[in-house]
Design brief:
It comes from Giesbergeria sinuosa. Keywords: Heme biosynthesis, Lyase, Porphyrin biosynthesis. InterPro entries: ALAD (IPR001731), ALAD_AS (IPR030656), Aldolase_TIM (IPR013785). Belongs to the ALAD family. By secondary structure, this protein is α/β, with parallel strands linked by helices. It has a single domain, classed as Aldolase class I (TIM Barrel, Alpha-Beta Barrel). The chain is 39% helix and 16% strand. It contains twelve helices and ten strands. Strand 5, helix 4 and strand 6 form a beta-alpha-beta unit. Helix 4 packs across helix 5 and helix 8 packs across helix 9. Bound molecules: ligand PBG. Ligand PBG binds next to helix 6.
């Protein structure tokens, strides 16, 4: 039916390049590799602690003795970086979260042990107060319950210094206070930690996709019905993400991040196109839980969806992804 067409066949046949796997491989623009993966893990005080997180099937809170073999597995698989999140003993939680400053707290001890055992495995820590505060917010409150900015930044700076002193490679402020990247960078420089990298959670949205994570670190109960809307970004905004990224780069971030991941791929693309800096995305706990739940029902093919979801991050412009699937992906890539 090409009555008005000059030729009796389609001039271009895009399907030619899709015909064989060798041409599909040859022309593929984006790929997931093991080098793209950052593996978030939950650490717990004690020995032989292995607590499943029901809303995150396949994810456990581990004590250091059980984390070490996981770290070794990551080294074997070639995963470049572990991201540590603590489940803090409720007895240590206070309104000001000051346990975050303890140079011998859980996270500094885990960092030291990991760097000693596996010097070539990158270690990244979260800089935020929510695991340490009795109310589960990422900062300290005034008498009305409002999250104070500058007082929080002062504590976060001390937390980042404690992690740097323990030898962490990357600190990742995930709190969304104004000016924290500059404050952390200046403090690190002043203390001689010139190699400590900062991955800024620059465009972190006030998202309902963090629910399972709050189960894992044990903050969901303390937060109750409270939200984080007075510091995390409004999901309706995109220009604001660019302003946040611009500030963090100007303040000394080495890498920036967008979070959550798959529902915010438009933000990843805008950030990458605008700034051309190392840009990461966090496939957060709720995204992981959705895929796990659907796969458990047999509604989605687990591995196929896992790999497609990660490829989508790369296509959107991400240089790497924090994902709870990291070890599964690395194993899949070896097949
Ligand atoms: C807290 C923090 C959160 C996540 C990473 N760091 C949760 C929050 O802001 O409440 C979420 C990660 C995930 O959902 O996987 N500073």
């Amino acid at each position: 039916m090409h009555l008005s067409s000059p030729t009796p066949f389609p001039v271009s046949r895009p399907r030619r390049l899709r015909r064989d796997s060798f041409t599909r491989n040859l022309v593929r623009e984006h790929r997931v590799t093991v080098h793209d993966l950052i593996y978030p893990v939950f650490v717990h005080e004690g020995q032989r602690i292995h607590q499943a997180v029901p809303s995150m099937p396949g994810v456990d809170r581990l004590s250091l003795d059980l984390l070490l073999p996981v770290a070794e597995d990551c080294v074997q698989l070639g995963i470049p970086v572990l991201a540590l999140f603590p489940a803090i003993d409720p007895a240590l939680k206070t309104p000001d979260g000051k346990e975050a400053l303890n140079p011998d707290g859980l996270i500094p001890r885990v960092v030291r042990a990991l760097k000693q055992e596996f010097p070539d495995l990158g270690v990244m820590t979260d800089v935020a107060l929510d695991p340490y505060t009795s109310h589960g917010q990422d900062g300290v409150l005034d008498e009305t319950g409002y999250i104070l900015n500058d007082a929080t930044v002062a504590i976060l700076t001390g937390q980042a210094l404690a992690h740097a002193a323990a030898g962490v490679d990357i600190v990742a402020p995930s709190d969304m206070m104004d000016g924290r990247i500059g404050a952390v960078r200046q403090a690190l420089e002043a203390q001689g930690h010139v190699h400590t990298r900062i991955m800024a959670y620059s465009a972190k949205y006030a998202s309902a996709f963090y629910g399972p994570f709050r189960d894992a670190v044990g903050t969901r109960g303390a937060l109750g019905k409270a939200d984080k809307n007075v510091y995390q970004m409004d999901p309706g905004n995109t220009d604001e993400a660019l302003r946040e990224v611009a500030l963090d780069i100007a303040e000394g971030a080495d890498m920036v991040m967008v979070k959550p991941g798959m529902p915010y791929l438009d933000i990843v693309r805008r950030v990458k196109d605008e700034f051309h800096v190392p840009t990461f995305a966090y496939q957060v706990s709720g995204e992981y839980a959705m895929i796990k739940a659907a796969a458990a029902h047999g509604w989605l093919d687990h591995d196929a969806v896992m790999m497609e979801s990660l490829l989508a991050f790369k296509r959107a412009g991400a240089d790497g992804v924090l994902t709870y699937f990291a070890r599964d992906v690395a194993r899949w890539l070896q097949k």
